[in-house]
Amino acid sequence: MKNKNSRRSFLKNISLATFSALALSGCDMEAFDQFFQQNFKTLSKKEKDRIIKNLEIKYKEKYGKEFHVSDKPPIEGTLFGYALDLSRCIGCRRCVYACVKENNQSREPQIHWIEVLQMEKEKGIDFAHSTAQYNPEKVPEKGHFYLPVQCQQCRNPQCVTVCPVKATWQEPDGIVVVDYNWCIGCRYCMAACPYGARHFNWGEPNVPAEEINTEMHYLGNRPRKKGVVEKCTFCIQRTREGKYPSCVEICPVGARKFGNLLDPDSEIRYILENKRVLVLKQELNFQPKFYYFFGI
Amino acid sequence: MKDNFYENIKMPVILMALYIVLTSGCKNKESGNNEIDKVLNEKEENKKTEIAVEYAVEAPPFSDGTYPCTDCHANFAPNPVRRKLVDWHDDISAIFNHDSENRWCLDCHDLNNRDYLKLASGKLLDFKESYKLCGQCHGEKLRDWKVGVHGKRTGEWNGEKEYLLCVHCHNPHSPKFKELTPEPPPIRQEDIK
Predict the structure, then answer these.
(1) ipTM score assigned to the predicted complex
(2) DSSP code of residue A203
């Protein structure tokens, strides 16, 4: 009896149990691979290619469409910056839904990366008295202005600092990205972000197959799973191909401007040099690359 | 003897190394300069072509069947008398709100050739270049528009861009930007199941 409960027999049994559990789980190599997949930053080119190929197959099975998942690295000599003209924005929320569509956010439960805040002109920029719930017949409403908030792509991002597993980081072109496979869903980053720019998948995300955007980036708009955090990536799948983010392209008043901060001829640099510019919560020293300005 | 040997060989080695460093340095500098020249030349060329095509804009947004204007106007004798239009273009008269006290049709449209706009200088202007006409008064806006800060641009942030004309967003006869119906507000956090 005493012999049976020995350390040796315990180790033997536990290894046997582990092995049989693995065998019983159906020899699912893909799940096995996924479980042991390393952080995106440490993957070799070969591993990335294999993972991406598997993803494309998986998405095709699920949505019945051809997908293209990119892992395009940053374009050298770029640092992305964004500017939003507060004197133009009319609060129509076209950007919110263009973003949802482009970046395959969950429709139900709903996730929006952009939140448009309505503020009173008399109070100025005052988050405590702002609302995202305004819903009049027509916008803009008299006496109000609108301030859309999304990821401010800080130069000094504390969401990155607090991540205990390094599942989120700032890319050399300034985009803060998340490796959805590495994220453990602790939501520290959400607590650290003063702009409410990070969003958690409380439920299984749900994107209708007919609306899904098939042009994807591994660090951007590929489908997320329940229990991970997601955020604006300046439409990494578009901007690394030279295109504007979709919120810029949809804006009916042209309030949204995007470009390379390192290029002195870019429109973003023109704005920084010629307009009155502000960043939100400057006192925190997160140093956003998302500027608000008054075009008038 | 051994020490001497090393001392003898030291000097030439140092000189050799110095020579290599200097020449390679020079070479790098030269090639670097060439590259800069190349980039500069390319930029110059780009600038030239930009000036040649000026601004790539979408076609002007004419109402259906109104252009060319001469289709109808060829049949009328031009009347330069300032008046309110009642029989034709009364829809424009009805909404006209663009310094309407001081201005009327022929301040921007040409009397003799209705297919063109007219600058203050009297120069005729194609509708595709109407931004120049707007810029006569709204110079600051034109300047911002040219660099892509006023108005909407689509295309590539590091390449070809397409501009919208002023009149794509602002009705030239009533330029205030029209109100829009907003998309639905987000679901309140407490209502998310």
Answers:
(1) 0.85
(2) S
CATH number of the domain at A80-294, please?
Answer: 3.30.70.20
Based on its alpha-carbon atoms, the radius of gyration of chain A, rounded to whole angstroms, reads 23
* Helices and strands in chain A: count of H runs, count of E runs: 9, 12
B133 within some domain: yes
Q: How far apart are the first and last CA of chain B?
A: 91
pLDDT for B32 equals 47
* Chain-chain contact of B182 with A271 (C-beta, under 8 angstroms): no
Q: Which parts of chain A register pLDDT below 50?
A: none
pLDDT tier, B28 (very low <50, low <70, confident <90, very high otherwise): very low
Taking CA atoms, A260 is separated from A75, A107, A149, A270, in Å, by 10, 32, 20, 11
Domain limits at B165? 70-169
DSSP A237-281: HHHTTTBPPHHHHH-TT--EEEEETT-TTSHHHHHHHHSEEE-TT
What integer pLDDT is reported at residue B30 of this predicted model? 45
Residue B37 lies in a domain: no
CA angle B125, B129, B135 (to 5 degrees): 95
Q: What is the Cα–Cα distance from A270 to A273, expressed in whole angstroms?
A: 5
Domains of chain B: total: 1
Domain spans, chain A: 1-36, 80-294
* CB–CB contact B152 A254 (8 Å): yes
Please say whether the beta carbons of A152 and A122 come within 8 A.
no
Q: Would residue B192 count as lying in a domain?
A: no
User: CB-based contacts of A2: which residues, under 8 Å, 6+ apart?
Assistant: none
Those residues of chain A whose CB sits closer than 8 Å to some CB in chain B are: 75, 78, 85, 90-94, 96-97, 109-110, 112, 115, 132-140, 202, 239, 242-244, 249, 251-254, 257-260, 263, 266-267, 270-271, 274-275, 295
